[in-house]
Give the backbone structure.
Amino acid sequence: MELANLALFIEAVRQGSLSAAGRRLGLTPVAASRRLAALESDLGVRLVHRTTRSLSLTPEGEAFMPHAEAMLTHADEGRAAVAPGDASVRGLLRITASVPFGRKVVTPMLARFLDRHPQLRAELRLSDAVLDVAAEGIDVALRIGELRDNRLIGKRLADNPRALYGAPAYLAEAGMPETIADLHGHQCLTMVGTTHWAFAQRDRVVRQAVRGRFTADSIEALHQASLEGLGIVMLSRWNVAADLDAGRLVPVSLIDAIVPDQGIWGVLPTSRLVPAKVRLFLDALVDHLRLA
């Protein structure tokens, strides 16, 4: 099976047109048609329905498409593995992260990373849900907090300082809590289903019951609620840096406990043959986090 034929098939599906794919790959319409026909002949099935203006996948084409992409990606990774230096890294890098971390930290870093590697493409999937990296075909998942699943291959990338924060107007009205017990009398902004916050107290972890009139299933919603003066929120330092500088939020420091650091992790589907694109991305992200 020729890689050039796979590349033509994938590009045709992405462009929705065989002629458009041919133009992008520098092929005449006749040459593009021959490559697709050769691939279908190798497989013994029809992969696409073609008209003069459009192209659509057959059921067999739908089933084959992810495998074609994987074969082309593996070929790119193989070339990159033996190429001198890292300038030739190419292919598609699939990343997942939480919505706020992906938007505020990963996206700005990715812009510079892709500029350094012009033959690399990135797909960033933002979700506050935990995705299955293997099942979703993800190269690396960026997660905050200690990993509970010991089957995952995790690499700690950086510390993740966290604290309690509140809007000046809320704290002026409700008062500044001094101990973890004081939180019982405050409006605490929590994720749906959360009843306790964990704190580090000397050499042990303590859990404090918290409650409030507002809960959400989104960190960004809790962040915005804190800015609106609805209560105290527990967030990562990177998430509120601009608000602290502008005075929109202030830290809430307790005398008897601190919010524990849970770390920023890169989670991989396997520890074997980690692609160069993943290693380079994680190294660049570590550098970015160190300077942030």
Summary: The two ends are 47 Å apart (CA to CA). The chain has three domains: 3-82, 91-160+263-291, 162-252. The chain has a mean pLDDT of 88.
